[in-house]
Write a structure and sequence with these properties.
Oligomer: single chain
Order of helices and strands: EHHEHEHEHEEHEHEHEHEHEHEH
CATH superfamily of the largest domain: Glycogen Phosphorylase B
Structural class: alpha/beta
Length: about 325
C-alpha cells in the first residue's frame, strides 16, 4: 500500500491572521486531497483548529526561548520524523523561515519566502497586499488554484448565555501591548447606550485582559451582557451568526465574527492599515482615524445603525 504524501502548513498566529488564512487552508486541502496534512501552529489554536476540515494532524510550537533546548529539539524531531514532501509557509516570518534548518537530509519542497525555497513567492508587491490576497498569490505561484474557505465548522451551543433576540457584539479589547489600537472605553459606553435605546442588547466579549474595560462599559447600564472571558472561539462563531452586528477594534475576534457572516464594523487607528488586514466577510465596514481617541462616538453610532439595518446574518 502506497503511503499518503505528507504536507506541512505553517501558520502560528495571531487569531486574526489565522482566520484570514481560511481560503489558503481550504486551497491546500483541495489541491492535496489525498495527502496527510499537518498544521504547525500556536498551542492556543490547536484544539480549535483540530476541528477544522483542513488538517489531519496538529503540531504546536510553544515558541520556547532559544535556550530551552529540550523544547526546541522535541519540535525538530517531530518535523524530521514526518518526512514531509512539501511545506507551505503561510507565516512567512523569520521564525517560520528558520524551520527549513530543522530538516536534515533531503529538504521538502517549500512554498514561501525562505532562502532556497523551491516554490518562492516572488511578487515584489506582496507586502502591499491584503493578507488573503497575498496568500492566494503565494499559492498560485506554487501551482494551486485558490478556492474559498469558510468557518461553518466553528460553532457551539450558546443558549447558556440566554441572550435576547436582538443583540450586538462589542469588542473593546486589542493586544495588551497595543493601546493605540483601542477605541476609548467612554465611546464604547456611548455606543452601548445608543444600542439600548434602539432595543438592541449590547454584549461585551473578549478575554480576561479586557475585564476592567468591560466593567467600565457595563456599570449602571441595565441590559448590557458582559461575557468577557466566558466564550470559546466556537461559541463566538455561533454568537456571531445570531448577532445584529459586531463593533470592535482591530483584533482577532472581529475577524472571526466577520468570517461567520456577522455584519462587522472594525475601528482602525494609524497603528494598522485596513487595506492590508481588515476583516473580510459578507458585510464589513471600517472606520478609521489616526488616533482612535479622535474617532467620535457619533460617527461610529451612525455607521453601526447603517450596518444593523440589514439584520442578523442568520
Amino acid at each position: 500500500m502506497t503511503a499518503r504524501p505528507r504536507v506541512l502548513v505553517l501558520k502560528l498566529g495571531a487569531l486574526g491572521n489565522v482566520v484570514l488564512a481560511r481560503d489558503a487552508f481550504a486551497t491546500i486541502r483541495t489541491h492535496h486531497a489525498g495527502a496527510e496534512i499537518t498544521l504547525l501552529t500556536m498551542p492556543a489554536f490547536a484544539s480549535w483548529l483540530a476541528r477544522a476540515p483542513w488538517f489531519d494532524r496538529i503540531l504546536t510550537d510553544p515558541r520556547a526561548p532559544w535556550w530551552q533546548l529540550g523544547a526546541q529539539w522535541r519540535l525538530i524531531r517531530s518535523l524530521r520524523a514526518a518526512r514531509f514532501a512539501r511545506v507551505y509557509d503561510l507565516q512567512t516570518s523569520g521564525r517560520s523561515g528558520r524551520y527549513r534548518l530543522f530538516f536534515a537530509g533531503r529538504q521538502p519542497e517549500w512554498s514561501g519566502i525562505a532562502p532556497g525555497a523551491s516554490h518562492p513567492d516572488r511578487d515584489p508587491r506582496r507586502n502591499l497586499l491584503h493578507d488573503m490576497d497575498r496568500l492566494a498569490g503565494q499559492l498560485r505561484q506554487a501551482g494551486l488554484e485558490p478556492v474559498a474557505g469558510n468557518l461553518d465548522w466553528c460553532r457551539a451551543a450558546a443558549a447558556r448565555f440566554a441572550l435576547p433576540p436582538r443583540y450586538a457584539l462589542l469588542v473593546p479589547g486589542a493586544s495588551a501591548h497595543r493601546p493605540d489600537k483601542r477605541w476609548p472605553v467612554a465611546h464604547f459606553r456611548a455606543l452601548a447606550q445608543a444600542l439600548l435605546a434602539e432595543g438592541i442588547a449590547p454584549v461585551l466579549i473578549g478575554t480576561a485582559v479586557e475585564a476592567e474595560a468591560s466593567r467600565a462599559i457595563a456599570t449602571a447600564l441595565p441590559g448590557v451582557f458582559n461575557l468577557t472571558g466566558q466564550t470559546s472561539l466556537d461559541e463566538l462563531g455561533s454568537l456571531g451568526r445570531g448577532a445584529v452586528l459586531a463593533v470592535g477594534n482591530d483584533t482577532g475576534p472581529m475577524h472571526l465574527l466577520a468570517a461567520v457572516g456577522c455584519p462587522a464594523l472594525t475601528l482602525f487607528s494609524a497603528a494598522s492599515d485596513p487595506a492590508l488586514c481588515a476583516p473580510r466577510g459578507r458585510r464589513v465596514a471600517v472606520r478609521r482615524a489616526p488616533a482612535l481617541a479622535d474617532l467620535p462616538a457619533e460617527a461610529v453610532i451612525a455607521a453601526a445603525r447603517d450596518l444593523a439595518r440589514g439584520g442578523a446574518s442568520g
